[in-house]
Amino acid sequence: MKFRGRLVAATLVLALVPVATLAIGVRHEMRERLRDEYRNRSAAMAALVETEILRLGADIAGRLAQLGTDLAADNRFRLALTGSADQRYVLDYAMSAMRTAGLAMLQVQDADGRIVSSGHFRNAYGQLDPGLPLALARSGAPSLTETRTPDTTFLAIVLSDSVQIGSRSLTLIGGMKAEESFWARLVGEGPLGITIVNGTDTLVQAGSALAIGSPLSGSSFPIPLLRRDGDAVTVDAGVLAVGFDPTPLGRLLGSVDRWFLSVAGAMAGIAMLAALWLAARISRPIAQLADRTKGLDLDRLDVVFDVDRRDEIGDLARLLDAMTERLRTSIVRLREAERRAAVGDLARQINHDIKNGLTPIRNVLRHFEEVARERPEELVGVFRERSQTLEQGIAYLEGLSANYARLTPALRQGTCDVNGIVADVARAAAGETRRVNARLEPNLQLVVGDPVAVRRIVENVVGNAVESLSDGGGEVLVATESVGEGAPGSSVRVTVADTGKGMTREELDRAFQDFYTTKSGGTGLGLSIVRRLVLDLGGTLRVMTERGAGSRVVIELPAAPPAKENVT
To answer: What are the residue ranges spanned by the domains of the chain?
Structure first.
């Protein structure tokens, strides 16, 4: 992401995070406070409903007590009950008394539970219903029960009372309707609602519809429910819950969300414009500096970073201008140092190659001197034997001279006999206390390359191996072999192994660096030249060494393809 994009993103984050944090905090606080308010209203309404039920129960109990008093003083009912008067009066008594007392249901039962008179269902006369008074006696509080009429059934809050008429004991069961309109009148209009449940069954739903779906989100209290199962009547523990409708709360929270989203959108737009303006103010001078940097040429003196700004951008431009001047000065010095280093490198390389070429000549001359001093009669034979080494050394130096005369030595492409080169180098490097043995593979393939370059490679590697031997002696083995002879990509392998002191891992890692040496008077160019020449010839070079156990250098050079035979 570019600087401008990052600046815009950071500005948007800084603008929107506080707004989002405020919105989340306000929404959470508002939701919790409104929920607490609804819960408090639900608790207050539940207490009010419970008080109203108890008050209604006391009212029903008072009316039943008054009916019992009136019934005990009614001689006509007493005579009709004993059969001495018209039985129709008993049958119609409950209906008349129910209307007079303002009850919605009333029935009179004898001690056996037989219905003597029923105001809400006249045809129930003579039926046995002993479970209802027993259940009311067990509940001991105003209870809800479903009451059947000739036309329908309704839910009623009922109580019972008893009266003694002569020798007979009667039970009065009366109650008032407790339908949805009754409960809706209690909660009034608003978000509150009442739900009465018995287990999973819902008996009453009044008020807010959504409060019915989550009745226990408010306050609740138990209320006895009388359930008929055939002739038996059981008392169940019902629950009357007062809950609240979350729809107004949801609408309010939705309005708050929309308001905050509008504010956030406006803030995002303002922040975007401010960020773009600020990014343009900052990125434009930086882009100008970048364009000048792209066109920077240290050889041209007309490219400068001079600006008249007094802010951080101006400081940066002045620092770039000063750095450019320092770079121009440093480049001039560097070029001079490179020129001197190149001349020095060339001189050291020439010195190194000439020393390698003079070494076999010096060894032959010392051999002549030794033979002339100790065995003068063999001098002629030794001269004939070693004269070839002298000629090869002189030819090698002449080749170096020709190459360096062109300043850039060029490799002469051709084929050369590795066995011959290895034999000559091994013979020239041998001494009295050290042995340089050559193990040559017969009929070795020719290699593709410059014989001078191959000889330089072998001489450098063998020379390093001889110099690594201790003064007490040692051995260097130079072996040749073919790899994949006759197949495409075949090569010739030259292995130089010594019993010298070897190298550490650190010394091996730096062995191919120019001018790195562990020998006093060494140039540090031997292995560097070997690696460069091997790569120029398309070969590979590996070095295996261990401190105190000697070293082994493996060189592989591409073999020349076999010569085609002429068929006549």
So the answer is: 3-247, 411-563
| Six token digits for residue 528 | 């560097």
Helices (H) and strands (E) in the chain, counts: 13, 16
Q: Which CATH class is domain 411-563?
A: alpha beta
Strands 168-177 and 415-416, sheet pairing: unpaired
> From CA 72, how far away is CA 101, in angstroms rounded?
16
Query: How far is it, in rounded angstroms, from Cα 555 to Cα 530?
Result: 10
Q: Compute the C-alpha angle 170/174/177, nearest 5°.
A: 165
Instruction: Report the residue count for the chain.
Output: 568
Q: For CA atoms 102, 107, 111, 116, give the dihedral sign.
A: positive
Q: 187-238: per-residue pLDDT in tens?
A: 777 777 788 888 777 777 777 654 444 544 567 788 898 888 877 888 888 8
Q: Can you read off the two tokens belonging to residue 161?
A: 């009372």
Question: Residue 85 and residue 81: Cα distance in Å, rounded?
Answer: 8
What's the Cα-to-Cα distance from 15 to each of 87, 101, 320, 372, rounded to whole Å?
90, 72, 35, 101
Neighbours of 56 (CB within 10 A): 17
Which tokens hold the place of 254? 């939705």
**Residue appearing with tokens 């029923």:** 118
Q: Name the DSSP letter for residue 123.
A: G
User: What is the rounded distance in angstroms from the CA atom of residue 38 to the CA atom of residue 217?
Assistant: 10
Q: Is the pLDDT confidence value at 332 over 60? A: no
CB atoms within 10 A of CB 182: 18
